[in-house]
Amino acid sequence: MSIVKKRLFWPSLILVVMLGINVFTSNQFLTIQDGHLFGTLIDILRGSAPLVLVSVGMTLVIATGGIDLSVGAVMAISGAVACLLIQDLGNQNSVASVLLIIGIAIAVALVLGLWNGTLVAVVGIQPIIATLILMVAGRGLAQLVTDGQIINVQSGPYSTLASGFFLSLPVAFLIAVAAVVLTILLTRRTALGLLLESVGGSPTASRLAGISARRITVMVYVVAGGFAGLAGLIYSADIKSADSISAGNLIELDAILAVVIGGTALIGGRFSIIGTVLGAVIIQTLRITVVALDIPDKANLLFKAVVVVALCLSQSPEFRAKVFGRFKRRPAVEKVAA
Amino acid sequence: MRKTLSVAVFGGLLAVSALAGCGSSDDSAKGGDGGSGDKIVLGFSQVGAESGWRTANTESIKASADAAGITLKFANANGKQEQQIADIRSFITQGVDVIAFSPVVTSGWDAVLKEAKDADIPVVLTDRAVDSQDTSLYKSFIGSDFKLEGKKAGEWLLKQYEGKNEPVNIVELQGTTGSAPALDRQSGFQEAIKANPNLKIVKSQTGDFKRADGKTVMEAFLQSEKDIDVLYAHNDDMGLGAIEAIKAAGKKPGTDIKIITVDAVKDGMTALAAGEINFIVECSPLLGDQLMQTVKKVKAGESVEQRIVTEETTFTQEQAKEALPTRKY
């Protein structure tokens, strides 16, 4: 099998091309400043962390044949809870209290995931409806928590989550890497991945084969909730405030797009975590490239749409066969004719 | 069994979302018993809650309605025009006395405004204008002159570089694409800085009036432009996001890059007083009282001005330090 036919070849190529553009347009693609790495590449890696986290959770949910529309709302809630609690701290720079609050916010997100999972696996509501409930109500909840205001915090340890550096790499990026590595280890080094794919393929057959399909389904929603909660914390730490309206707004669609670019089928079954991560990084790179190329903002969405369409077409074997195959097949036809 | 359980869950959730989604539920409840009296019922459709400015604007309207004894039916469009049209339609069906709204975008209002006119419900615009040719579709437009705000920002900048003969690179963070404040603040600013050919806008992108977008776009600006002298942000929130990006790039906001914003909300004023912003053009959100006066006049059949401009000022760093302690929003 030639490299061109590998599933992730085309998305990787598009990413490399876009990064190439940024190498030229950016005056510091990758440099060292204040003892840590800095530049466009670092901005992209750091900026894509929330989307990577949300998308990896989404991949697991989609692998079981479900979908989670509530991730954006969960982001808003976790950021709102964290900022509200930090605001009330006597000393906002106390690392222990901030860590505790981060724990509380993630716990809230896990509970919201459990709620989704229960609606889907126990009550038996269709995933798109079950998570739509939290998507709509959740944002209202977040606004209720913040009282419709933007809550500002001045906590050093909290903002480290998004803007800090460890071993000269952005902390947000390291968090995303840790989550991805953990997920890959759990799904590919244990039987869990196989179980996920079998539940996505056929829940009934899996149950008859002795797999606790219900428990697996609840679990993926809990994980997706937890990852979304973590993403919400990074988002709010980035701007040092909780903005319950715009936090995670429409991120569920970006996440689904990342999953699709990564080659996971929306009907469930086979999934690719690495593909999803690639998809999420492409989406973030696209966002930066639009500015770098000076595309007028009225044409932003059109430009993004063109790239995404090109990306999806390039991944379709039929399309590739029609466009590129023509050049290869012709000699064969001539041979027959002769 | 499973069915009843899911019905119960749904019911519970609907109740929760009704509570959460409707922040002004107490106001509309009051409308129920006050309906028999001759209290004016005002239907107000707000753009959303995208920034600190908007929140202050909403609070001003709610408080003024309370004080003026006007029953307020409040709807939040969350930045979506179709939602806002639906909200206005529902006000028409409910037969409110007056409709007021801040349009999400400038175009596409003729049909729904015509419906209101046909139903004999007067309409007052607040904060943002519409581009309808037929000005009989609304009674009055209360709000800031965004073009003037842009001009004030540009004029301050002109003064800073008066007599200096060096190129000045400006980057601009625009508001929501197609919205009146974004269009007018951009054109007003451009007109003002034309006077000095050294002042050049080198990059201009939308940050959607949001902090996070302001930060992301500014990061990209900083990477692709070597020398940025001035940042002009169409609102405080985008400017505040950009400040984070400038700090992360190892530069000093307010010193290495001069920052001009519009709005003067508390967070912005705090940054101005701290020297991280250089100049803020005020865009006052406190137009609740003016709105209620106009509503009463319109209801009584009195004539009102077609255009009511809110009084606004500008702030330098020193003025911000003085004004901050007594600032209401």
From TrEMBL, chain A:
Localization, UniProt: Cell membrane
Source organism of this protein record: Actinoplanes utahensis
GO cellular-component term (any): plasma membrane
Keyword Membrane set for record: yes
Domain of life: Bacteria
GO MF term list: transmembrane transporter activity
UniProt keyword terms in alphabetical order: Cell membrane, Membrane, Transmembrane, Transmembrane helix
Pfam families according to UniProt: BPD_transp_2 (PF02653)
Membrane topology: Multi-pass membrane protein
UniProt-recorded name of the protein: Sugar ABC transporter permease
Transmembrane segments: 7-24, 44-62, 69-87, 93-112, 119-141, 161-186, 216-235, 255-283
Keyword Transmembrane: yes
Automatic annotation (TrEMBL), chain B:
Highest taxon, organism lineage: Bacteria
Residue ranges of the TM segments: none
One Gene Ontology cellular component annotation held by this UniProt entry: cell envelope
InterPro entries in alphabetical order: Peripla_BP_I (IPR028082), SBP_2_dom (IPR025997)
Annotated family: Belongs to the bacterial solute-binding protein 2 family.
PANTHER family linked: D-ALLOSE-BINDING PERIPLASMIC PROTEIN-RELATED, GALACTOFURANOSE-BINDING PROTEIN YTFQ
Protein's recorded name: LacI family transcriptional regulator
Organism: Actinoplanes utahensis
